[in-house]
Amino acid sequence: MTSTSNFKIAILGAGTVGGGVARILLEQSEALGGRAARTLELAGIVDLFPAKCAASHGIDRSLFCGDGDELTPAQAKAETDRLLADPEIDLVVETIGGSGDFIVGLTRSVLESGKHLVTANKALLAKHGQGLFKAAAENRKSIGFEAAVCGAIPIIKGIHECFTGDEIISISGIFNGTSNYIMSKMEAEGQDFATALAAAQEKGYAEADPSLDINGGDAGHKLTILLRMVFGLDLAFDDLEVAGIEAIDSDDVGFADEMHGTVKLICYGERRGDDVFAAVGPAIVKRSNLLSKIDGATNAVRLQNRYSDENVLIGQGAGSLETGSAIVSDIVFIARYGDAALRPPHRSSCKLRPLRELELPCNIVFETADMPGITGIVCTALGRQNINIDTVSHNRHMRDNALFAIATMPCTMAQVQAAVRSIQGEHPNVLLSEPRVMPILV
Amino acid sequence: MTSTSNFKIAILGAGTVGGGVARILLEQSEALGGRAARTLELAGIVDLFPAKCAASHGIDRSLFCGDGDELTPAQAKAETDRLLADPEIDLVVETIGGSGDFIVGLTRSVLESGKHLVTANKALLAKHGQGLFKAAAENRKSIGFEAAVCGAIPIIKGIHECFTGDEIISISGIFNGTSNYIMSKMEAEGQDFATALAAAQEKGYAEADPSLDINGGDAGHKLTILLRMVFGLDLAFDDLEVAGIEAIDSDDVGFADEMHGTVKLICYGERRGDDVFAAVGPAIVKRSNLLSKIDGATNAVRLQNRYSDENVLIGQGAGSLETGSAIVSDIVFIARYGDAALRPPHRSSCKLRPLRELELPCNIVFETADMPGITGIVCTALGRQNINIDTVSHNRHMRDNALFAIATMPCTMAQVQAAVRSIQGEHPNVLLSEPRVMPILV
Known about the structure:
Two copies of one chain form a homodimer.
Chain A: E1 7-12, H1 16-27, H2 29-36, E2 40-46, H3 50-57, H4 73-85, E3 89-94, H5 101-112, E4 116-119, H6 122-138, E5 143-144, H7 155-162, E6 168-174, H8 177-189, H9 193-202, H10 211-214, H11 217-231, H12 250-258, E7 261-272, E8 275-286, E9 298-305, E10 309-316, H13 320-337, E11 351-354, E12 362-368, H14 374-384, E13 389-392, E14 396-397, E15 402-408, H15 413-426, E16 436-441
Parallel strand pairs in A: 1-2, 1-3, 3-4, 4-5, 8-11, 8-16
Antiparallel strand pairs in A: 6-7, 6-9, 7-8, 9-10, 12-15, 12-16, 13-15, 14-15
Helix pairs in contact in A: 1-3, 1-13, 2-13, 5-6, 6-11, 8-9, 14-15
């Protein structure tokens, strides 16, 4: 197993994550060599701003390719081409980011040059993973992507190498730290959404443009990758139903609390026969479910398994060294196991279906006229759709209108919508707005 | 990587765990073959009671070696010898249990016969692991032991394969489900120890003789195994300081609750330079620490890492299919990776030191005479030993005596004991019993 030649690594892009990778490779050289059973050698780094990157990560400038403080795009391309043409380079780390033509072409070139690829790029894999994994298989090279899903949580190797004696029935979790930080603030401190978002931005969790974090897109990229791996779905990112937390308000948080739950942005996928029901969106998580206890910017993944019940993995989903450590673990794995680490994409006959078609308990918030008889009208309409009611919340009577929530036993969204339509048809003045529905996880 | 020959497995002992392994191998044959990249074949099972095992696990009797409903020990030995002599058998699962000469000799024979060994036997590995891992290295065979530490939680592969891009600074956790069930009952329902233990026995969590569960021995076996792996300690089980939960009472639980914590049986090991401070014993876990949120018979492992902060893995620590799934994951891994999965024992220059020598915040419960001036005497004595006081609890005045707790800032047990000795020396009538000390985990 032990090879006498060094395992040579190139890094493309030495920003937050790539710089962290370089630092760990340099600081932990001896320990990593022991784990990989061969010496890992950082052979070269390409970045447009080598001087700045070297300074900010404390890396020797000589490890960066090219001369001067900055490289032109043409110079960076020439240096990249030189590394890809170098037969001694075994593995390339892509930490540039983006999911456009440039990065698709570049990562494909890495594989076609006969080098393993390690990346933290969830958007790239969610949108173009099918083609990239095909290219990897054709070139008999590995793609390491532990860092692309929940950062330092080892869910990718968990699924590939650890939970292999079981059958995963469902996967759920908190895959976006920014939105979880916001929801935690709204719950613990009663902040409204805008205030909590501003706090997340001040803490550096949310980008200046936080839309992918709060609209569920970032979480959806990660769920797309896991649904392919776990259930063998031939899934494009756009196939997945994704909702964010922008519309969550303090009433939602309050109603969740009344039923011993908390609102979280949840990724969910569950297999029933050949159907996989999946979505990203806000859900009420009961306190009996460990995902309810994940606060702040932390991520968590919960597996419900056929034989071993539940497993929950918790850790940091972002950060320079956190994400860097996940990338380095991929490098160690590929260096150690070589061809044995190759995995053809997992394909099954399973079909994706939207989560709203799965029978789940749900919570429906009704804004109605505030007068006697309303609860009866609403509950009767639900009963006529065969929806069994669990609890009716404390009603917020507000003179002009009333706000209350009904938690149901498992039902589909179609049943709920039929009930709402019947109320709207038969009692046109009762519902003052479209009821809001969230699934409940127990 | 794909081999045309089947990977053949023998199981020695088809009780709770071995029967679960056989069932999963048979039920999941196709999926497991895909993951291992070769067909896994259950070639034979040896058990003294084949008819009973076959019936209770729903396994065909023909998979068991020998004839009749029961085998004599001599017959079982002959069947075992035959399997070990069979060059086609690749891997042997030991699910007999025990840690005496018989099982030490048998497992050594497995390795010396040129077969991989997979076992859930934590007592065997804690007491005789050093010799067994040496035998494995000499014979170039793997020992799979995922199931020996926290059942279905993939902490062994987690350390070997997943957290390899980081440096583990400390490992802590709840490694014994029975004792955690008891502590959860005492906390949530105010039960005393004896009542909670009886409830655990009724639920089937505790054995008729629960001593290894409640005295910390079972948890200590698991910590011994992890300390060797993570920190490279050349550690014998008897080297580790181990305490149980037998002496915990409702006052301890109450004082913990007052400081927003809960009492748990905690395994702990932390590296500082070349010292590894470790022990098993009751500790107060603050609610800010995720381990405080693990209720019932569930297990959890928390890693504090240099680069990726904390990782927590939660799952089921026991059970037929739960433990069985962990064993099967080892079989898949060894079948897939072959020689590349071989690992020489990790040895470092680190030395074991008892946890009480590490400066940790701690909680001290004092039973004293109930009269004015006591708190001053106690706090003065602590201050003279340079112990900084965090909080003094609400005092339970009970006429004849008083009970109160002092939570300290980080200090060693030697400092605490010096303070106690000075109180006993200078004020012989103040302390009515030896103060009880527990570390506090934040």
